[in-house]
Design a protein that fits this description.
Length: 208
């Protein structure tokens, strides 16, 4: 069984992301790679969030999000905006939001595109807080996967905990963020948890 078939793990990721963003005091939130709107639905239920923007490259998924969220009072009140676009591109109007989320989306980026995503998100958008989740490749044998086999055919990589930590520390250092790592799901003493989390917090700059 892959984690695609585990609704409890999926819900746990959404709940963790929403909880971390809520605890930061954020009021303006970006969901980068929002898919069909699962996390947006969580965020819009909370009056703390005054503006919620979903960015998604796939038009079909964005249409699903629009349909899913249209009846929520928060959407009707104008707190929601859905944008068709890539988080690898520049979006100056979305810079400096209080918080952003990238939930199970980075692993869909070809490795050669990661530096472009890094620049667009951390140098361009520069959210005050970013919650990023991605599969823990170390854990894959517990899903019955062979070495080199991924949980989803569209995944371009599934990093080990060490590789994810190296990447996260490098990104944080290059762009003026602190980062903390954690996990979501059942803990294996040797292989960790199925989902790994990086919480990036932007260091205050002069004048902030």
């Amino acid at each position: 069984m892959s984690d695609r078939d585990d609704p409890d793990l999926h819900q746990a990721r959404l709940e963790r992301a929403a909880s971390l963003i809520r605890a930061s005091g954020a009021r303006r939130v970006l969901d980068l790679g929002c898919g069909s709107g699962s996390l947006l639905q969580y965020l819009l239920r909370d009056a703390q969030f005054e503006r919620v923007v979903g960015l998604e490259l796939c038009g079909e998924l964005l249409a699903q999000a629009k349909l899913r969220l249209a009846t929520l009072p928060a959407a009707r009140a104008g707190r929601l905006e859905l944008i068709c676009g890539s988080y690898a591109e520049a979006h100056p109007a979305l810079a400096d939001f209080d918080a952003a989320a990238m939930v199970e989306t980075l692993e869909h980026v070809p490795p050669e595109g990661l530096s472009r995503v890094e620049r667009a998100v951390f140098a361009g958008l520069r959210p005050g807080l970013l919650v990023l989740t991605t599969p823990n490749g170390d854990y894959n044998p517990l899903f019955g996967l062979a070495r080199g086999e991924f949980r989803d055919p569209d995944h371009k990589f599934e990093w080990s905990r060490a590789r994810f930590r190296d990447w996260g520390l490098g990104v944080a250092r290059r762009h003026g963020y602190g980062v903390r790592f954690s996990g979501i799901g059942e803990l294996d003493p040797d292989l960790g948890q199925p989902t790994q989390v990086a919480l990036f917090t932007r260091h205050p700059s002069r004048g902030e």
